[in-house]
Amino acid sequence: MRSRNWFSPILLQFRRNLNEVSTLAALRDALLPKLLSGEIRIKDAERIAGEVA
Fold first, then answer.
1. Contact 48, 38 (CB under 8 A)
2. Domain coordinates in residue numbering, the chain
3. From CA 16, how far away is CA 14, in angstroms rounded?
4. What is the distance between the alpha carbons of residues 41 and 34, in angstroms, rounded to a whole number?
5. pLDDT tens-digit readout, 21-46
């Protein structure tokens, strides 16, 4: 069991990274089309992203 102890923090960080990637991808998918169309401005997008984070 001792040899697995180093592996646990790596898996935990991996899961956190996956969660962050999913969050960032969802923000990108939601905000990018609105930014490109002019529906929202950068300032609005920053506020929305801050509310999610």
1. no
2. 2-52
3. 5
4. 8
5. 999 999 999 999 999 999 999 998 88
